[in-house]
Amino acid sequence: MAEARPWAPRLLWAGVPVALLAATFLYPLVLLVWQSVSPDTGGHSFAVYGDVFGSEVFRRALGNTVWIAAASTAGCLVLGFVLALVIAFVPFPGARAVARFVDVFLSFPSFLITLALVFVYGSAGMANGLWTDATGAAEGPFAFLTTPWGVILAEVTYFTPFVMRPLLAAFGQLDPAQIEAASSLGARAPRIVRQVILPDALPALAAGGSLVLVMCLNEFGIVLFTGAKGVTTLPMLVYTKAILESDYPAACVVATVNVAVSLALYGIYRAVSRRAGA
Questions:
Q1: Is 269:210 a contact under the CB 8 Å cutoff?
Q2: What is the pLDDT of residue 60?
Q3: Which of the listed residues 39, 95, 124, 169 has the most CB atoms within 10 Å of its CB?
């Protein structure tokens, strides 16, 4: 009589979620790559990759995507670190309510924040309206929202709480005795932040920053709703190729590059996290 195999039920239970994961996530990715090497002329070749990589539009979109994502991430890290420090270590009325609002803010859609900025700084927004009413000018001076800087402002506004949340959790685990000891030894606030708080916050900064970087690389709604027509990023180029030009192989090539860049950044993040002990 054959011996029972206790690993068989475990393999069965593991196979079900793996199959669902493959059907839900891996199959669309495989289909995306397959379509990218299937030109409209028939057959399979990498000619579409050569055409896309050789185009000035793609190179400009790739450059815009990388530098806007990097600038937005840097802004989120600086602003998120400062705001988290204030909320966690500077006592003021309503600090707990502000911390809870950060959690609520994470559920807001990105286009909602962008529309709010359009209402304030858009060509027909509040700021320009006040300016024209006060000076009688034909138009207001605030026109940056449709530039890359407007996209960066919107992304920093929306993604900063994604940096603050892990930082607030890290600050909550920090031993107050370390700060009290440093203060009793005569250390000023900047030195305490630099030598006591920042080292413990580095894993949280790495986690929040890497998440924001990947999200900025793949952000579509913010660029679309700011009306920045001259700012073409990889997600916007996918939309243009697929919806406006009906060039699905080229759209799949751009999407494949976008996915590859995101996966590469995730791999770098995992390597840095392991070295940082996160």
A1: yes
A2: 92
A3: 39
